[in-house]
Amino acid sequence: MPPYEASAYPPFAVTVDLVVLTVRRHALSALIVRRGEAPFQGRWALPGGFVREEEDLTEAAARELAEETGLHAHGPVEEDTPAHAAHLEQLATYGDPKRDPRMRVVSVAHLVLAPDLPAPRPGGDVGGARWAPVESLIGPADEDEEHPPLAFDHRRILADGVERARSKIEYSSLATAFCPQEFTVGELRRVYEAVWGVALDPRNFHRKVTGTPGFLLPTGGTTTRQGGRPAQLFQAGGATILNPPMLRPEV
After folding, report:
1. Which of 125, 185, 209, 220 measures 20 to 30 Å from 144, CA to CA?
2. What does the angle CA 20 – CA 234 – CA 214 come to, to the nearest 5 degrees?
3. Which residues fall within 8 angstroms of residue 38, CB to CB, at 6 or more apart?
4. Residues of 65-94 as b/e, b for ≥16 C-beta within 10 angstroms?
5. Are 127 and 36 in contact (CB under 8 A)?
6. What is the mean pLDDT of residues 117-145?
7. DSSP per-residue codes, 14-51
8. Which of these, 156, 162, 232, 147, lies nearest to 197 by C-alpha position?
9. Which residue has the higher pLDDT, 49 or 121?
10. What pTM did the predictor assign?
11. Among candidates 85, 136, 93, which has minimal Cα distance to 115?
């Protein structure tokens, strides 16, 4: 092996950024935090932070999620992770040399999906945390609290995460990650409607999801939490790929 001189290569840092999505009040919402330190102090951003020397990327993402929001994610990081923890997967890598004014920083973004969640608990160097409808964040930005411009390149990262979620629920069972452990077909339909931003025909949707092998598994119970007649309860059936897929309606 030829000699390797580390000083011959420019240093750079690695961070993780988290696109945390949930459905709140029938709208797809993202978690944003107010930065407590420079750069972009006081601006809203995606939660995240620098990867520690001893961490792999998944560990760093799960740690940042817990530290900044109090949420936990599925994964090998903690053996006592709650069963209702959030779904966590790697999204994409962002390495524009000018994306961070401090130094060359490469960010590995992760997508986090979870059922309807309470107000997050800010921690670490975060000055505040809240849920915001994704359309208010990836649309045209204004200098106000309703349409805040996100720090760094987080608007692009968020838009990529939203599109990943929208496309992935077409062919996978990922939509159930937005639901409680037991849910009705109507509750699942409202997840699809919130993520896709469209209205779906209830009867056609019921026929498709109950007729897709391995998608839903009846629990034997019913609920009236949505009002009206008792509705049958289901849980995720174990299938990871939907065949046939749930194609997104054209709008």
Report:
1. 125
2. 85
3. none
4. bbbbbebbbbbebeeebeeebbbbbebbeb
5. yes
6. 76
7. EEEEEEEEEEETTEEEEEEEEE-SSSSTT-EE-SEEEP
8. 162
9. 49
10. 0.88
11. 85
